[in-house]
Design goal:
binds 1,4-dihydronicotinamide adenine dinucleotide; 8-stranded mixed β-sheet; 11% strand; binds 1,3-dihydroxyacetonephosphate
Length: 337
């Protein structure tokens, strides 16, 4: 199989490295200098330093069209902010040819600055329906830190699409000795899980950074899962999806695993860092920062209560100081579980 991965950040690179022993894999970086540097060093020095590329992984840059034309599977490994342009580009270049496409981004599109009141951002599959409706597309998601996948540590992923050929292509491409890829046709559920867990991981990082304790962390994860599930079901997802890899699985990993960039944002905010400084210090994308407001807007439109998300948004917006967060969450009226 010929796989083209567009975007050479941590996650696109890790998956490309993992698949390269079984398939022909091209990893495309938009920055030509970064591509040349990766080729020369035999590793992605910027995003996955110290983990050597396997033999056979091809790094590319420049005109992506010939690579698109020759691929059996195209993976968009960019952050959510670049998904719309990536799908539109593929829509134009494939010209109706049916090649399975998948994105790795986890989030809702951010609401653009100055957007009219009431507008909200979209999930990947909603963006795809707007700009590339006839593509057979889906998402690869689930609990997976790039560093561990690049080192071939055991990991389980979920390939979600309404198109069986996309699910099958993702399983063929990535299922192997150290990676299990499960298929799921509930793409909305899988995407809501991947987006909301990032926001909840910021909240859990804050909780741990403030030393609120293990009980508090367990409460946040559990009540976070409840609010993620409420939103997903209201958006048309299946309840059971949230008990799976992209719901409970990715929430546990991201909220409690110190490799998480979103969790790091919460830990840094707890230390008194500004959001700007916290984001700058990461050097990677933390999607929860950009999705949080959209998650809340979508929830409010649907009449779904998401108190942890609401508090996290207030914190990120600067309208609630760190010291008031505990009271905002613990001071709520009693209710049934
Ligand atoms: N790093 C991880 O462990 C995982 C990340 N993800 C998700 O995958 C997505 C990408 O994350 P990372 O690779 O970690 O991000 P990263 O911050 O490591 O790298 C982002 C990469 O995307 C590239 N990029 C941005 N806009 C682009 C465009 N228009 N065209 C081509 N390349 C572009 C950047 O140059 C950079 O190489 C995010 O949505 C993230 O939530 C999902 C699972 C695991
Ligand atoms: O999605 C991830 C793990 O599944 C990566 O999480 P972070 O983006 O918080 O690092």
């Amino acid at each position: 199989m010929k796989i083209l991965v567009i975007g050479a950040g941590a996650w696109g690179t890790a998956l490309a490295m993992n698949a390269a022993s079984r398939h022909t894999v091209q990893l495309w970086a938009r920055d030509g200098a970064q591509a040349a540097q990766m080729q020369a060093a035999g590793e992605n020095t910027r995003y996955l330093p110290g983990i050597p590329f396997p033999a056979g992984l091809q790094v590319a840059s420049g005109d992506v069209q010939p690579l698109v034309a020759g691929a059996d599977l195209i993976v968009l490994g960019t952050p959510m902010a670049a998904l719309r342009s990536g799908l539109a580009m593929l829509h134009g270049s494939l010209q109706g040819r049916q090649v399975p496409v998948a994105w790795l981004s986890k989030g809702f599109e951010a609401v653009p600055e100055g957007a009219p009141a009431g507008s909200h951002g979209l999930l990947g599959n909603e963006v795809c329906a707007q700009v590339a409706a006839q593509l057979h597309a889906g998402v690869l998601s689930g609990p997976s830190f790039a560093q561990e996948v690049a080192r071939h540590q055991p990991t389980a992923l979920v390939a979600a699409s309404e198109h069986a050929d996309v699910r099958d292509a993702l399983v063929t491409a990535f299922h192997g000795n150290n990676l299990r890829v499960y298929a799921n046709d509930d793409i909305t559920g899988v995407e809501v899980g991947g987006a909301v867990k990032n926001v909840l991981a910021i909240a859990t990082g804050l909780c741990d950074g403030l030393n609120l304790g293990l009980n508090a962390r367990a409460a946040l994860v559990t009540r976070g899962l409840a609010e993620m599930t409420r939103l997903g079901v209201a958006l048309g997802a299946q309840h059971d999806t949230f008990m799976g890899l992209s719901g409970l699985g990715d929430l546990v990993l991201t909220a409690t695993g110190d490799l998480s960039r979103n969790r790091k944002i919460g830990l840094l905010l707890a230390q008194g860092k500004s959001l700007h400084d916290a984001v700058q210090s990461l050097g990677h994308v933390a999607e929860g920062v950009y999705s949080a407001r959209t998650v809340l807007q979508r929830a409010q439109k649907l009449g779904v209560e998401m108190p942890i998300t609401e508090t996290t948004v207030a914190l990120l917006d600067g309208s609630m100081p760190v010291r008031d967060v505990v009271q905002a969450l613990m001071g709520r009226e009693p209710r049934a579980e």
